[in-house]
Amino acid sequence: MSDHPIQQLVDDHRYILMVVNHLNSLAPGIAGSEPVDVPLLRQAVEFMREFADHCHHGKEEDLLFPALVEANVPESGCPIGGLKGEHVKGRKLVGQLEEGINLLETDEAQARQTLCEAIRGIALLYPDHIWKEDAMVFPMAERLLSDAEVNGLKVGFAEVEKTHAHHHQKHTEFALSLQAA
Ligand SMILES: [Fe+2]
Ligand SMILES: [Fe+2]
């Protein structure tokens, strides 16, 4: 992993997209009558919570966005307010994904519908969200932030990564295994 903080976020995005794309590829089977791979879906929920939300969104919301606000980017509206709103939407969709998994035991038809809706939402949200960050927000950060501020992010990101180090490898290996599949 690169130690440049912006490159770290770009690298995280690649793993997130591997999981999102795989989930999307499962949707037609879930909508039909194919068996649902519950352990895989549960692991995807864990990945989206721990890797994508707590760790990756944590670095963005607690460190990158405040640094941009310090550099006079407005805190609400486009882009920061919009991106934070999308993080909230992402959390809800992952909750819906989990709800769908839990429903499988009691109401399979409803469970399949809930799972498909959640996956459709996730597949619509994340690639677009990631594109906005990669193509617009990160280049803007590279223009606006001084070397000292980038260094501050590097230190802050290392702290966040340390908190999540115990499951980082499990999650990146999971994403790579899905890409290979
Ligand atoms: Fe984000
Ligand atoms: Fe991101």
Globally, the shape reads elongated
Class computed from helices, strands and strand pairing: mainly alpha
β-strand amount: under 5%
Q: Which ranges are low-confidence, i.e. pLDDT below 50, for 5 or more consecutive residues?
A: none
Instruction: State the major sheet.
Output: none
Specify the number of helices: 5
CATH class: Mainly Alpha
What is the fourth-level CATH superfamily? Answer: nmb1532 protein domain like
Series of secondary-structure elements, N-terminal to C-terminal: HHHHH
Distance separating the two termini = 23 Å
What's the structural blueprint in terms of helices and strands?
Layout: H1 5-31, H2 38-70, H3 80-103, H4 108-144, H5 147-180
Helix pairs in contact: 1-2, 1-4, 1-5, 2-3, 2-5, 3-4
The structure holds fe (ii) ion (2 copies).
